[in-house]
Design a protein that fits this description.
Jelly Rolls; 10-stranded mixed β-sheet; mainly beta; 18 strands; 1 helix; globular; binds calcium ion
């Protein structure tokens, strides 16, 4: 499937997105975030979570903040990559950034050529989750067909209730074109599909700041790119709203290859990097 052929369901439509096969375990720990204070006080805010990725070049992401999902098998979306905890696929660059790096190895055997992909998926599960507040990341995409970078969140009750009951918020996903998709998924209790509300917003391969404001007062989500809001979703706008029951959410950063976006064309020059300057929550 080409990125252009990716279905774009509207509010209330259901989609099947079996991204959450049983590999993603251990999502049970709940950490409560102190209630959010006014945005006006932001310069004085102490972050509930912050990773500035200021480690030495080649060093691992802070293990007190990040866990790895490891392995392949498609991750519920027929993705091609194998996720590793290797420094070949995730490291700090010495310039203040986290690098998630997708690599490709081509092997020929018996006249048959096969490509294997490796990448990384980092998550704060069991280490940090928050109920309401601002979740912000400064991210630089390397926009390439067949690559699927994402910064997203799941309910911390994932390990207990599974997906999609835990709910999913995709702060950003890129399908290989000049747009980012921001989505909220609530469970459809009758099958494994979800209800979705989403917005597409243009993006390039420069640095951009993405923020999700999960409002304590209304329970709604507002999304910002470089300080400009582009979508607000209220609890009343979606069926089976699952984000107002006191369950915090943890974050995930990953760079998938293939799957929903189709395989990377031969023209893609590997490695492909997802750069993250910081992740902050307050
Ligand atoms: Ca940084």
């Amino acid at each position: 499937m080409s990125p252009d052929a990716v279905s774009t369901p509207r509010v209330g439509q259901t989609i099947n997105r079996r991204r959450f096969i049983s590999k993603m375990l251990g999502a049970g720990a709940l950490t409560q975030l102190p209630s959010c204070t006014s945005l006006k006080s932001r310069p004085l805010v102490s972050y509930a979570f912050s990773d500035e990725f200021n480690g030495p070049a080649g060093s691992a992401p802070d293990p007190s903040k990040w866990e790895y999902d490891i392995g392949g098998g498609g991750w519920g979306n027929n993705e091609l990559e194998v996720y590793t905890s290797s420094r070949a696929n995730s490291f700090q660059d010495g310039d203040g950034n986290l690098v998630i790096r997708a690599t490709k190895r081509v092997q020929t055997s018996g006249g048959r050529t096969t490509a294997t992909y490796q990448s990384a998926r980092l998550k704060t599960v069991g280490k940090f989750s928050a109920y309401h507040g601002n979740f912000e990341a400064r991210i630089k995409l390397d926009i390439q067909r067949g690559l699927w970078p994402a910064w997203w969140a799941l309910g911390a009750n994932f390990g207990k209730v599974g997906w999609p009951a835990c709910g999913e918020v995709d702060m950003l996903e890129n399908y290989g074109g000049p747009a980012v998709q921001t989505s909220i998924h609530t469970p459809n209790n009758t099958d494994s599909s979800v209800f979705t509300k989403f917005a597409d917003i243009s993006v390039d391969d420069d640095w951009h700041i993405w923020r999700m404001w999960w409002q304590a007062k209304t329970g709604s989500f507002t999304f910002y790119k470089d300080g400009m809001d582009y979508m607000t979703v209220e609890p009343s706008q979606m069926r089976n709203w699952c984000f107002s029951s006191g369950v915090p959410m943890f974050m995930i950063l990953n760079l998938a290859a293939g799957g929903l976006v189709g395989p990377p064309p031969d023209s893609v020059q590997f490695p492909v990097d997802l750069l993250v300057d910081y992740v902050r929550v307050w």
